[in-house]
From TrEMBL:
Its main location: endoplasmic reticulum. InterPro entries: Sep15/SelM_sf, Sep15_SelM, Sep15_SelM_dom, Thioredoxin-like_sf. This is Selenoprotein F. GO terms for cellular component: endoplasmic reticulum lumen. Transmembrane segments: none annotated.
């Protein structure tokens, strides 16, 4: 009986998982509403499937993930970004405050938007200024935000 179960799992990962992956990707806003934020890789969804037996959750994860490939994440760049945060909650995020006050000037295409009750997040923008990715940065240090933006946001001269 265990052999049949193992074959079923193998069939799932071999045939059904690629079918689920091929469905349309959800928008970053829809993914955020489902609780999937950040640059999740599809391999993370596969790991999730090993531990969580909720196929609907795994399917949603696969609709919000980025395909794994050699250096695929490092090649993604954006034209700009918005740092969204609640002004009242800033006191709880000294690293974000420090970045805004001391480092943000290096990034002319990065704006700060204060939205009531919003946790700190980066909203990455494409060439048309449309939201492409939302990344929570609650626990990021100032250096992490700085490094991420240097790697992911095109210099103003390149736009």
């Amino acid at each position: 009986m265990n052999v049949y179960k193992a074959c079923g799992v193998l069939l799932f990962f071999t045939f059904l998982l690629p079918i689920v992956k091929s469905k349309d990707q959800l928008s970053s806003r829809a993914c955020e509403d489902l609780g999937f934020t950040g640059l999740a890789l599809c391999s993370d969804c596969n790991t999730l499937a090993e531990y969580v037996k909720d196929q609907e959750l795994v399917s949603e994860c696969l609709k919000c993930c980025t395909e794994d490939s050699d250096d695929s994440i490092s090649k993604i760049t954006y034209s700009g970004a918005i740092i969204e945060v609640c002004m009242r909650k800033l006191v709880f995020y000294p690293e974000i405050v420090s970045f805004i006050e001391e480092e943000k000037g290096q990034f002319p295409t990065v704006k700060v938007q204060y939205l009531f009750n919003s946790p700190p997040k980066l909203i990455m923008l494409d060439d048309e200024g449309q939201h492409k990715e939302t990344i929570r940065i609650d626990n990021w240090k100032r250096e992490h935000v700085l490094q991420f933006l240097k790697e992911k946001v095109k210099p103003a001269s390149a736009i």
